[in-house]
Structure formats: C-alpha cells, structure tokens
Amino acid sequence: MAAVLMNRASALERMANHFRLSFNLFRNSSTTASTASPPAAAAAAAEGRANKSKRKKKKNLFEVAQFLPNWGLGYHVAKTHWTGISYQITKINLYKDGRHGKAWGIVHKDGMSAADAPKKISGVHKRCWRYIPNSTKAE
C-alpha cells in the first residue's frame, strides 16, 4: 500500500514539474517577444495611457466653499443636477478636518429667494456641489 502511494506521489510530482517547465517556457517566450518590439511602439503606448483623462473628482459643499472668501458665506452653491435652484450659504459649522460639517442657507429658485429663514442644507457631504458664479453676493 505504501508503494502505491509513493508511485502516485511521484507521478503527481512529475506532472507538476512538467507543467512548471511548460509554463516557464511560455512565459519566457512572451517576455522576449514584448522586449523585441521597437521602442517607438512602447513610447506610443505610454503616451496613450498618459493622454487618457482621469475622471475629475467632484467636490462636497465644504470643498467648494473653502476656496470662496469667508468660507462662502453669502455666496450661492447648488448641486450639479439642480436647475434653477441654489442655496445662499448663511452659516457653516466645520469639523476639525475642514471637509465635513453642517451648513445652513436660504433657498433660491430662479434667482429669487424662496424662503425668508435659513434652513439646514441636506446632502452637504455628497460629491456633487458647484459654485454659482453669476449670483451676486449678499452683504
């Protein structure tokens, strides 16, 4: 019984060695073919990868407001998929990292104020906010 098990083990080991050798032969032939290609083709491939534009990371409300004077107080911001609706920021509570927090503002529809009192802006952490440059800053 031990002899049968030894024969099976040696047969499996020979098959594994044969597979490894054939795989190494295949791998070596494929790497020599790629190194034999002209350098101009490799440079064109690298340039093609560099020209591929990466998707621009959208910003949450605080990342938009941080570049505005006084953290955007008085400026209009809106979500990218909104049409005709914006918030005029009246108050911002930032957490320590400067990218999270809470914000309040007055809703504007088609440029006109839709509410008198500021309300908490929902979805401030979603990455879909933009600055509305045509709106005038309220003093």
UniProtKB/TrEMBL annotation:
Show the Pfam families listed in the entry: MRP-S34
Q: Where are the compositionally biased (Low complexity) regions?
A: 34-46
Q: Which domain of life is it from?
A: Eukaryota
Q: Which GO terms describe its molecular function?
A: structural constituent of ribosome
Which InterPro entries does the record match to this protein? Ribosomal_mS34
Can you cite an annotated GO cellular component?
Answer: mitochondrion
Region: Disordered; residue ranges are: 34-57
Q: What is this protein called?
A: 28S ribosomal S34, mitochondrial
Organism, per UniProt?
Answer: Olea europaea subsp. europaea
